[in-house]
User: Fold this.
Amino acid sequence: MARQQERAKRTRASIINSAAIEFGRSGYAAASLNRILEGSGATKGALYFHFDSKEDLAKAVLEAALEQQVAITEPLFSNPEITPLNSLRLFCDEIAGALIDEMVVQAGFRLTQDPDFFQDVLAASANWLLTFEDVAQRALEAGELREDVDPKQFCRLLLATLIGQFFVNGLGDATDLRTRFRQVFDIFVAAMAAPGWTAS
Assistant:
């Protein structure tokens, strides 16, 4: 029984990974279930055992992408040895790498462009904003941001600009995306950080 459950988990994970590749390359509408099956090595029966539909599979990819993003960011944002503003700086670097190297994360961002998943993306975005706002509020209280900075506005503008840079980059060179993200962060810091703040 345990062996069957383990095999079922592996099959499900393989289907999600193959779907991430397909959604990342083709987008949701043009994605082919046959290509997903071919890439995963799973049968059609296995696919429909785990997922009710193509939409259900896409939502599973979105969930997996969010889990990977949280795994990347949570250690940064919860580490008391990293100051709040520095945790945001490190986030920019780490998430840039994940957007290039991690197909599931990349596919998750590609799916955010599809109107069919607007409500799912809206819910995920709300959670992200709350996390970022908490970090920005701590940065304000620690004297890392200027006293007149609105943490909510800071976070919304930073996230929107990073996402824009991702699409402008066109999934190009990872080093280039990291450079773009660092430039975005440096511009925001120059505009909103308290005098004397330095990266560490």
